[in-house]
Amino acid sequence: MARKAVGRPKKVDGDRTRKPRKKKDKNAPKRALSAFMFFSNDIRDTVKKEMPELQFLEISSEIGRRWKKITDEERRPYDELAAADKRRYLEEKEDYVPDPSFETTKGSRKKKDPNAPKRALSAYFFFCNDIRQETRDENPNKKITEIATLLAEKWRALPDKKRLKYQKMHDEAKVKYQHQMDVYNSNGAVEEEEEVEHDDEDDEDDE
């Protein structure tokens, strides 16, 4: 008598336990974009206009196909944008001060407080803000991505002595931000204490 093949028991959907997603701090620095992502953002609208019949995933595939075909010379601006964005991310990450009141409890969602102090700009961003308009005036026909590339090139070519000006601006802004955060967090703690005291008074009245 032939034996019946015994297979593995089927998994029931209810048996699967999904790990809760880790909550992200909305104030944390945004991760740097890759060269491909800069390229994708640059030509996505063009692909949509040229091939309106494509669906979302098909558009992504077409962008990937074009990315593989571009020359090293055509790719260089996107590599430079990615390198500049990576420096931005690393600098912001170094200066990032997590909000101590940020909660990661499951089901809780931390809303960004519009009254919270803004993080200090990096030396690179102070530099960009200082010469961006001048660079635009010198290159009126350049796209935003091309202007960003020029700014990155100028920053790389900037002597260390001239960078000190922007590093000092960053250091001063960082100290100011830290002071503002201390005051901000302190005020939040005081408000919580006051609420607790009011609750105690209400309890006494009830008695």
TrEMBL record:
GO terms for molecular function: DNA binding. Residues 1-30, 90-116, 185-207 are annotated as: Disordered. This is HMG box domain-containing protein. GO terms for cellular component: nucleus. Residues 190-207 have a biased composition (Acidic residues). Keywords: DNA-binding, Nucleus. InterPro entries: HMG_box_dom, HMG_box_dom_sf, HMGB.
